[in-house]
Design goal:
homotetramer; about 475 residues; alpha+beta; 6-stranded antiparallel β-sheet; 18 helices; about 30% helix
Chain lengths: ~475, ~475, ~475, ~475
């Protein structure tokens, strides 16, 4: 319980946004967009804006609402702005790694913000150093922006394409220059990225459509794999591309857990997909029970789907403290033994004497399920049937998601039987990969490597399935 | 939209806690308790603790997790501690009004934290000044603690009873001294206050049982109207009392909106009462519809109750941004016109082409209903039937709840028909006071003055029903 | 060397100021006045101002320039303001003890700032508690302001006089009310306090005339012992008084060390008095030497006097780091052994091969003399004759000056011979009390208790000469 | 009077230090060294240290004592450390430009801190950008460190020499790497840089010997023009060099104003040189007067020299507020008219009826002389003879000193007669360049371009004498 808010879930790395607002308040709009992307990263936030010839940037550790003041918004004048919200996968937070990352180049100032992970970052870094460059941080983003600074090409789209052709991995990114603003995505389409039209003129691109909807955007479309989109005052246009991968590899975990339920990508609303996962789970693994409850908040859509499909009543069984935020106060051993909990409380009268289906969206480290089952038991639930709306997470992600060490993954550190005993439920079932893919209308083009080890490309120092299966 | 988080709801004033933990980590336990009471006040927080002979205090503006550091916890050593979390009803936040309020008296140091409002605070204040006292803040709490300092009696329970006999209004408070710690409640029992036993020894009292449950407490019981409970290492005991009022006046709005769903008082679980309100609303005002949705988060329990009673499917229609916190960044007029919203996004595929029952727990200022109805319409809902799980709020509260000016109350500033037109729903119905009381098993002893103007006592300068009805 | 800036000197407690500026910028003027009084206390600063009916206050830990922002100045509107700068004598700094101290009374708001120490504070405090008051700090100032709140009298001058008649000790204070602003001084006239006329209208009172000069004041006069002066837009007027003590007891150490050289009181300029001390020292204890140097900065005036009287050249031998401020970085033992010093460096070529007279203004704890003598020796001085421009400090001060424990005083912990050996000088002489008084034209009415134990009144728990002589 | 502390003097840019302390507390020693160099820059400070393989850095806006905490010292472990204190010449302070500047290179991490100004920085910058580099700040230091990153050579001394051969201008710098630490100086020897041996092992290099003396160093020697010194645990050794310029150009203004009086360079103690300037001034321009006083603090040495040479008594006439620090509080026009001053107060009795020689070390913008003369007149001085211990400043410095715009220089904006009238003195004389050089034993190798326009090299866009003389 070292982080009282830690739910044993994976951590996504970032959210990005780009806004072109002819009225000149692009940074302010980017602020609201980042606010809607806050769930993708709470460690740091930043915005860079261009006003005529001058690029300005503001970034720091903290939540979006903490990092920016009204005065910052005034300073970050201009019609074009990009923003970033970050969740570090490294132990210690440092403002030095906050994004956007900006440099002066021979072509003028450039700022870049990205979501993802380059698997060849170390080689790219060494190549830059060998050429005599000096690097001031350990972040992939600096490597990316330095590659851009030296890339060949007659304009930014050409230079961006040249740089992208050297990058292997997951990357959805936005680039701000004085000449234009761009949003682009890796050839596999791993991390989400969409664009839309601002009412009254201008356009925006963002990691999730929820940020675009918050800005009142319409006319959404996804940035395609390998595609470079220019985001400008007249809307968005395709400005270039590199070849898309033969087989798409969109991260399926975005549907399971990361994305906000109101986001839409690949044509599927996230809430709807989760309800389908829940319904499929009900068909695959029905339960004799009196009610269906969810691990709040990420499992509610799946629980509603399960309840409707199984014609069992949906109810709430837990209260989750809404006042999210880091605290450094740790309970003493004595308080811990008393059962002090900051995450969840149970609603006793809702479950007393009832047979409960408990829906969780996923089991990663599996540290939350046991305490929740014990809370239900303590409140008098007579049976508890755990149903998980995704397969067991068994493989690490090399594309920018921190699943934890494989020794921490519940499916690696213990058998299913032992895990059932550990959490103390009466039964435990997972949604199979097949049923999950069926819920997406059989669409191929998704990466489900964390469930099945089927990586979209070979990973240096991490040779895929063989090396990591447990 | 001056406060992007403002939902047009009333604001409760405070949460209090007292913890006696023989292990000496009372302040740390109080911290976790306050964290569970954070919904009762986000402006300021404070903890006072006694270690042997010395009383120490730490309070400041901010959320509980922001105010206290690990070092504060070390400094606030001792087996007895009280805490407070505050929502100011006044415009400007000031650390000077943060609680607990502590002074040195002839009987040693005293700290007090309270929830409520004295209607005779001005008279008490003048009486103190006339006796030659100097007062350093404008808060009722200083008046209360100064009254205690000069109260007659051989011990603290006697002095507390003597002071209480001069106080008119709502007050649930905790008092920390070197001789003992006390929790007491006004003779009408207006604001909630309960106590429980800590596992392994010690006891606690808190505004809501959710805080006691967070500490692992068992054996809950309410502090009775007019009762003074001593909270000590051997548990809690009745230490004194003043006469309870002939007729209890427990605040019914705690069930409607304030309390956390997992809290229990007067023997009723809040989640269960809200489900009953929803079910009663379904019986009183059924709707031809396809689904039931809630204004998140406070209306979910009532919506589940309405859905189950009406045998309509419950679903989610809105996403509420979880990253609560003050921001001072305001949207420009241009952004506002584009529809930028930080509060809610809609889940379009859930409601498209559907007839929707939208449940709100209450209508106070009525500023949220219209935007939500418009979001549903924009997402393609074919009909929208607004159902409110409480009567219209029509009267101010003089017992510590800030309902806003009566000119701001929707039920005062406009007729029901005009309000229906304003929000743009297809129908609008409220739960009658009678049905609300029936849901509480016909129990009398509740104050529903904000709905019906039936105040428990005459209010100086505010002569009750006559003066305020609209 | 726990405080790298500690020079082994006594610490004065406070500086006060009151400004009446018809233009309405009294707080801003008070700010500049406090800035000139900064040497009297660096722990905390505060200003209270009255604008029409409203009193506002701002105070915090820190230097004057750190505590106040431009916005504070705007907030502290009004034509009357008082200010305070504080040096705590207690170990831990707390904003709670910062001044001015303000309360609401039956006669309206009152703020008070003082310099000094009440020897009967404990009794006054107990009397207040016994009457049923609650006190929120441990400071004498709260006791003073609470006494004022309950004092009898038809107006503030009468009430101030009534309160003063109960106070024993050193106190120079300023009081701000809505009806008027007052400056008053104890009957012995122990701590300095003067007033003057602002150019263009208005008046001011301050601990030292250097603050009045900084404001451009003219027409200085001292507030007499026991006198109450009203400071208003029309100038200053005597508003009341209590009987002055039979024998004045102005603190002679103000001339020795505390006051700024440009301040004037009792008709003597401080720089001039110090030059006289130096000249007298030269007559009493001449030295065969080549040059005269000072311990910077407080001994420069005396060194100039000694040099002129002895017809020896004055020169500088030390550089003192100007960047005064607290640092919490401590040298390691290894660095300390290397001789790392933050206070003083020597000017080698000035003293090499020379016979040097080293003037110090006083010897209190005597911790600086040794290191300075060693610096001179290390730089090649052939002889070092230490001359001290005041007698040895041998008795504690009970009137608000922290001389340190008597066990720390050089004159108590060691004999003169041993101290000479400890510091390593070739000779050591002190100015006799007699010569010091002669330099003040034989004026009686000074307190020199720290030198001769002759206290102006009996001190409870500290019976004067007998109890403390070493 | 926009900066109440502005004395109309030029601003030096920086102080640097490098410490090799085998005991591992190099950063702590660097802290004390920077503290002694604080007068060279108060805007920002930083320290970088190497512990085995890891380089760590801490830098921020603020005074040395404000920037570093005890915890920083613990973090900055290691036997080698460099530090920097900065005074920005640009309007707005930014932590981004704080030094040391560190990057990762193909040869490992490098940190650099420098004092000076490259006149070909723009060309160097463009060359880097053209090679495809990205630069993240506008500072020369980043250009320098990036040049180092790509410099050819088998080891750091070779690479440093290669980089130096491309740099034109004034630069005294220190470089920290994992292989060694270096201190080097431009071929003209413009800015000072010396090294010394730490007692007990190790060595240090610093901008001024006062910092070395603070660390207890002995065996000082200057880093020669063009020389590269390695600073290590075994002392300091010559590690390389580029050709020194045919004619040295050590900044003579270091003697006039910048350096601390206890520093020594080129074999001359600064205090001694200033006394010689004063004595020469007395010979060139004697005055019929009663006393000699100084503009504190930088003119005291010269005033003592003038007094001794002219056999007039030296005395103090001004008190300068010691509590240096930025304040943002501005006096209102009304206060300004009243004569509110934060800088200086006069000592009236010292000068009343006297003929005073007022010594200033230099006249740059000339904004202080007038107010000081008026203070003396106001205090009753009968005659005031202004004597300036250096020639009039008439030319800008291109080597890192901010003299202000030439339109601001007193010697450019007005004639000598008009300036005398402006300040209101009875006479005004300057030390001639010739006498200044004679005071340095006729040594050539000094740059006195600010006085005579004789620049050591042609300045691009600033063609030396012709273009700037007024």
């Amino acid at each position: 319980m070292s982080d009282p808010m830690d739910l044993g879930k994976p951590r996504e790395e970032c959210g990005v946004i780009a806004v072109s607002s002819p009225g000149g308040d692009a940074a302010r709009a980017a602020f609201y967009g980042l606010f809607a992307l806050q769930h993708r990263g709470q460690e740091a936030a930043g915005i860079a804006a261009v006003d005529g010839r001058t690029m300005r940037i503001r970034k720091d550790l903290g939540l979006v609402a903490q990092v920016f003041s009204e005065r910052d918004m005034d300073d970050l004048a201009g019609a074009d702005a990009i923003g970033h919200t970050r969740y570090s996968t490294t132990g210690s937070a440092s403002a030095r790694n906050a994004q956007p990352f900006s440099v002066e180049t021979r072509h003028g100032p450039v700022a870049l913000a990205h979501n993802g992970n380059l698997v060849n970052a170390a080689e790219l870094r060494n190549a830059l150093l060998e050429k005599g460059a000096g690097l001031s941080s350990g972040s992939d983003t600096e490597v990316m922006v330095m590659t851009l600074a030296s890339a060949q090409g007659k304009d930014w789209p050409e230079r961006i394409a040249a740089a992208m052709s050297t990058w292997v991995g997951a990357y959805s990114f936005v680039v701000l220059t004085r000449e234009g603003m761009y949003a682009a995505r890796d050839p596999w389409g791993m991390r989400p990225l969409s664009c839309g039209l601002l009412p009254g003129g201008g356009a925006a691109a963002a990691s999730e459509t929820c940020a675009l909807a918050t800005l009142g955007c319409t006319g959404f479309r996804e940035v395609g794999p390998g595609e470079i989109i220019e985001v400008g005052r007249d809307g968005f246009t395709r400005a270039g591309a590199i070849s898309a991968a033969a087989k798409g590899a969109a991260c399926i975990f975005e549907y399971v857990y990361f994305s906000r339920p109101d986001s839409v990508w690949n044509g599927f609303g996230v809430h709807e997909v989760r309800r389908r996962f829940g319904a499929a789970l009900a068909r695959e693994f029905p339960a004799e029970a009196d009610m269906v409850v969810a691990v709040p908040d990420s499992s509610i859509s799946a629980a509603i789907g399960y309840a409707r499909e199984s014609r069992l009543p949906y109810d709430e069984a837990f209260v989750k403290n809404r006042y999210i935020g880091r605290t450094f106060i740790q309970p003493t051993q004595s308080l811990r033994e008393k059962g002090v909990t900051m995450k969840f409380n149970v609603l006793p009268e809702a479950v007393r004497g009832r047979r409960v289906v408990l829906i969780d969206d996923s089991i990663v480290r599996g540290t939350t399920a046991g305490p929740l089952v014990r809370l239900l038991r303590g409140a008098g639930a007579s049976e508890i049937h755990m149903r998980v709306a995704s397969p067991p997470v068994r493989f690490p992600c090399h594309m920018g998601v921190d699943m934890g060490d494989s020794a921490e993954l519940a499916a690696c550190r213990t058998s299913r039987e032992a895990f059932l005993a550990e959490i103390g439920a009466d039964s435990l079932e997972y949604l199979p990969v097949r049923a999950m893919r069926d819920s997406l209308d059989g669409a191929c083009g998704f990466c489900s490597a964390c469930f099945d080890g089927d990586y979209p490309f070979s990973v240096s120092g991490a040779s895929g399935k063989e090396g990591f299966e447990c």
